[in-house]
What we know:
The structure holds 2 protein chains of 2 kinds. By secondary structure, chain A is mainly alpha-helical. Chain A contains 34 helices and 9 strands. Chain A has 5 domains: 383 residues, Up-down Bundle (Sodium/glucose cotransporter), CATH 1.20.1730.10; 84 residues, no CATH class; 111 residues, no CATH class; 79 residues, Signal transduction histidine kinase, dimerisation/phosphotransfer (DHp) domain (Helix Hairpins, Orthogonal Bundle), CATH 1.10.287.130; 147 residues, 2-Layer Sandwich (Heat Shock Protein 90). In chain A, the strands form 3 sheets. A 5-stranded mixed β-sheet of chain A has the order 4-6-7-9-8, with helices on one face. In chain A, strands 1-2 form a two-stranded antiparallel ribbon. The longest helix of chain A is centred in the C-terminal third of the chain and has 65 residues. Chain B has a 5-stranded parallel β-sheet, with helices on both faces. Chain B has 5 helices and 5 strands, in the order βαβαβαβαβα. The chains are: A mainly alpha, B alpha/beta. Chains A and B meet through helix 29 and helix 30 of A and helix 1 of B.
Amino acid sequence: MLNILIFVCLLYVAFLFGVAFFAEQSTKINRARWLRSPWIYTLSLSVYCTAWTFYGAVGYAARSGLEYLTIYIGPSLVMFGWWVLLRKLVRIGRRNRITSIADLISSRFGKSNSIAIFVTILAVVGTTPYIALQLQSVTLSFQVFAANDDLGSSTNLADRTAIWVASGLAFFTILFGTRNLDVNERHDGVVMAIAVEAVVKLLALLAIGVFVVWGLSSGISETMARIDASSFGQWSVSNGRWATLTFLSAAAFLCLPRMFHVLVVENKDEKFLQTASWAFPLYVALISLFVVPIAVTGLSLMPVGSNPDLYVLSLPLSQGRDGLAVFAFLGGFSSATSMVIVAALALSTMISNQIVMPLWLRYTGGRASISGDVRRVVLFARRGSIALILFLGYLYYDLSGGGAALASIGLVSFAGVAQILPVMLGGLFWRGATQKGALAGLIVGFTIWLITLFIPSVGLYGASTDTILTNGIYGVSWLRPQALFGVTSLDPLVHSVFWSMILNTATFVFISLITLPSPIERLQSAQFVNVYDQSTQAQNWQAEAGKSEDLMVMAQRILGAEEAQRLFQIEVRKQGGSGYLPEATPEFLQKLERELSGSVGAATAHAMIGQIVGGMSVSVENLLAMADETAQMMEYSSGLEVQSAELRRTAGQLREANEKLTRLSLQKDAFLSQISHELRTPMTAILSFTEILRDNHGLSETQVAQYAEIIYDEAHRLTRLLDDLLDLSVLENGQVRLNLAETDIVEVINRATHTALSAKSGADLKIWVKMPKNLPRIVTDADRLGQVFLNLISNAQKYCNKAPASLRIKGVVRGTFITLDFIDNGQGVPREEQELIFEKFSRIGQPESSGAGLGLAICKEIMSRLGGDIDYLPGQGGGAFRVVLPL
Amino acid sequence: MSKMVLLIEDEPNIIEAINFLLKRDGWDVKTHANGHDALDAIHRNKPDLIVLDVMLPGKSGYEILRDLRTEEDNKALPVLMLTARGQDKDRDLATQLGATRFMTKPFSNAELLSVVRAMMDP
């Protein structure tokens, strides 16, 4: 039986794997419309329902009656009232590319690193018991089957199971959560797998419910009678506990790292909330529907002393329904795995973004500079963190002895993460909240929680636990962990929540009132509190000319070359330019920071951009303006701003058109004057030497030969110039006839390489060609394309000043295009000349080079005739050109 | 000692031709091939006459001339501008900036020599 169970488990995991893989592939090839569904979003929210819900709710009901309902009421209230809070949270999260709850808090309070680290630690410590709880539930459920097999329930088996489950989950999470570093920190594969697990656990619990009501009893009426007959209605319900638990579960629903992850980070569309607002409460209602019948039936049918947490399994097993029991087991397994996976994912993001990355930045100064290297560090940090988190979970499980009832462990976690709530709410709704206040509040709340709830739960006070509980810390009676300030009448949980929340909030508010926010905090608070007001997109950065290339280098390291180039190119197009380097405008810097924070978190992204564009991100004027501005003023002026912005735009368009015409006329003049210069220069030498030779005043023979050679060279130069001019004019007028034929690009490259290297004037150049395998033949003009390649290779020969000079030619297929990068190891083209090199006669470098400066202009024309493009590719460490060609 | 001509020009073959012609005509010739430190070359060589091309790398002949004429000692130094752009406005600009004479490329050797002689010995 146990073997079958393990086999079923593995099969199930493989199935989930398949689901996740399929979903990820679908997103990649862009037909994942169905993945963008509010239903999948709603189902993914069910990571809220963990093994605690699956097994523990029944046990909870069996022990304490209807109190278990509070665990569902809290989240349902939050969902019903989504308009108030969740909408704002999701809006802020999406706009600022928030990656985790620590990122949210840090971002709101001035992108502060210290607060991010603190929230991360709090989250890790708060979640650890919860992960232990999942390990425990899976272990317990294995034991139920083992007991049924008469293998006995040795602790040895329990320990091994827990270790195996922990390692397996770490492996699965690493495999799926960190295969690639998504720019938006979204994991479609994982979300899909979680949604499937949500369905499995719901069906499993419903199946057990149906079995209990219609299989073990004759139907609803008999079940009702059974409930009436039990002592169920007589449990006294303490109002204090009800209120506390409802509040706690609502707070946890918002603050648990995994819930924040599925609610905010994985949210694809704000509108999904509308559906989830009723569908999620419906889901939890369904899941809790049969809890009472199962608990009551278990109490009456199972032998006294059997663990009520496991009725879901032991009831069908005791009736010989092994199949049903296995199904129930899978439900529980689903609940546990989905929670652990998402929690580990969310926490590892926090650890890597808020702790590892800032440290790495500090120690390396962010200097290593291979494209995508930061991604590798991030990925490595995430994988390590996942392993660490599961290890901590296992450690807690081991320390706590796995004995406590499931529900009570869960509540310890809830109370821990709930400490984030005051700061989060304050951050969203109160502009006066400051970083110092937030940090102080968090520290106070966290400490009280540790003392009053967490440490007693693990027994970390050791042998003296009882003494400390009765006599207080250091024997100070008002420091008794479960009766602070001499309040003795409260239940330990209510006591802890009461004091930690009150003191947390009070400290937060008080310190916020007596401290002043820093400039960045002011900006961020305006952005968060007034998130619905579009005009509050305050400018964070000052324009920084000439930094674009550095930014490009950095962006490539974090986002990877492809994504960074795409991003920069979009911005260039938006700014109306060409190439890959946009102006580093404040808007662009801010956009870039947002994109980067999606990968490494707000604080790190801010620091990295700060390193490049220089210390102060906010100018004195900005600062003064901010100090004066209030939300109301901004609302009032936003209407006027829109109008004047429109007028400015129209005026701008007219000015642009005018400038364009003037520019065209000037260009024509300049062109004529240039041609005149280019023709007259060789002509001067030719005429002068011809005259010298003709007059022949006693020239030596070597002189005669030398001067004839000069005449010959200059005449050739003239001819080449005329050829180029004609070529260009034909290309520009569109009268060119292309000889389109199926072409093998690699062959064209090889031919151009050969020609360039065998030319007698060509300097030594080492060329590496790397092309994708199985490249399809494309229809193009092979001669024209070859002309472009030859030009690029000869340019590398002429201008690459490094010895030994080398050129890499690398082809990559990107959808319906192929890009060919020509990158040499020289000093590259200076930033200010990158825009000019494709202009006519824009010869860069020294005059002794033979060209007339038309080569790249011709290349540009040819590529546009061939339906592609050619641009300078900055940030590659050498001269670099990218040719784009349609497949 | 013969008088000295400083030739500021960047085309190697044109340098070769003018150098040959002026030397054969008995002048001492120095050459300088770029714009940005042309003024230094002038200060260093203290020529009696400058032949100045317009299109130079680094700094144009016009700019060099303009800067040269701000120097008290060089207000009257003979400067012959050579340009391959033969439009009227180029000539006007050269004159306005204080060029002594102006010639368009290509030129005849005899014409160049007679102009230089005339400028050396007014």
